[in-house]
Amino acid sequence: MKAKILYIEDNTQNFYLVSFILTAAGCEVVWAKDGPEGIEQAARGWADLILLDIQLPGMDGYAVARALRERPALSLIPIVALTSYAMAGDREKALAAGCTSYIEKPIDPAKFAAQVEQHLLDARAKGEGS
Questions:
Q1: Phi, psi (5° rounding) for residue 3?
Q2: Of 15, 84, 94, 108, which is least surrounded by CB within 10 A?
Q3: What is the span of the domain harbouring residue 19?
Q4: Domain total for the chain?
């Protein structure tokens, strides 16, 4: 896959699981533990895709997505909400905030890398990401 992924997630166990799966698939994964740190990491401009937890302390994932989309240099990087929010309307709320897609937790470790790869391919087909 050879992608650079920024994962904005406050839960250490979730980060390590996702990082393990994506690193095994050939990705480089960088961790941001909260929204402001995630925005700062994204501003460095190297990420091909951002995985974004919605339930973050302080600044929630919706606010993070909106803040990322306000920055022209980051506006085309795909943002995939990776969240346990799975009630009716949650997907639409994430998309309205600026996420390009949505994956529900708990993830399926056997399918997760392929899901992320498909999001990268979709973004590249639309001219997003790098």
A1: -110, 155
A2: 108
A3: 4-125
A4: 1
- Domain assignment present for residue 130? The answer is no
Angstrom CA distances, 7 to 15, 33, 35, 48, stand at 7, 8, 10, 11
Q: Nearest Cα to 7, choosing from 118, 21, 128? A: 21
| DSSP character at residue 107 | P
CATH number at residue 95: 3.40.50.2300
| DSSP letter (8 states) at residue 46 | -
CA triple 78-100-43, angle to 5 deg: 35
Distance CA 80, CA 48 (A): 11
- List the structure tokens of 99: 């996420």
In a domain, 37, yes or no: yes
Per-residue pLDDT of the chain (130 residues; tens, 9 = 90+): 689 999 999 999 999 999 999 999 999 999 999 999 999 999 998 899 999 999 999 999 999 999 999 999 998 899 999 988 667 788 899 999 999 999 999 999 999 999 999 999 988 887 755 5
26 close to 69: Cβ distance less than 8 angstroms: no
